[in-house]
Amino acid sequence: MTTTARRAVVAFLQESYELSQRRACAAIGFVRSTCRYLCRRRDDVRLRQRLKELAQKRPRFGYRRLWWTLRKREHFRVNHKRVHRIYREEGLQVRRRRRKRVSMVRQPMVAPTQPNERWSIDFMRDTLGDAKAFRTFNVVDDLTRECPAIEVAKSIPGARVVRVLERIAVNRGYPKRVVADNGPELTGQALDEWAYRNGVALHFITPGRPVENAYIESFNGKFRDECLNEHWFSTLDDARRTIEEWRRDYNDERPHSSLGDLTPAEYAAQFANLQAPSAPSGPQTLEVNSSPGLS
After folding, report:
1. Any idea where the domains of the chain sit in the sequence?
2. Which residue of 112, 131, 148, 181 pairs with 117 in a disulfide if CB–CB is 3.0 to 4.6 A?
3. What is the CATH number of domain 118-288?
4. Residue 121: strand, helix, or coil
């Protein structure tokens, strides 16, 4: 029997048999403190409405990241347990997308210690509303998790990859190392010459082992989950505009749990030498884990 039903029985006994509350509770084995308890829960209307608005705007955020946004960005005085209760009551849970489990031996990566020490690069693919495919070329700073550029085009050959990296280097300087897979655009002559000319070491992962490029793979998962899967692109210009807006939001607004709930831009601002362009000392030896057949 629920608490509400027991209270109704107590009230019936008191009224029908002129019993005191103490004797009515004793008759049905109901604790008086529970019978007399009055709910002191605060009004959650404003919090509930704002939580639903944030969840609709960012449908792939879980309750912890929504709670962080409410508390740090919008200054709600609320703890995570209260947000979690409302989050569940409103049915805002994020649908978990399960991945196929693959047995593998993971090799740890040595984490960078300075911005611009190591960049990770990779390609992704998606389609427009007319079913025509386009590609994105993603660049991530492994320390700050910043994404300085996402190039969107129907075709991104090695020469275009070099132009994107050169454009980033104008403002940030050249990295010491670039981690990439063994795609033909990345193992060709264009990127090889650019790296040699600017003193950048290229590190190619073992073929078929994307876990060795974990930083960009983690970024790709967020990019796919929060942007590509959530939008329908009518044209290539529409895709470029939407993806650029997401990239700026990712860098400047989205909290990153591995950075202590700071945004990548806030974390990067802690390093005074971030804006100082690196001065390459000269050509470095090309570092290759596999044999991609550089031309």
Report:
1. 3-36, 45-89, 118-288
2. 112
3. 3.30.420.10
4. strand
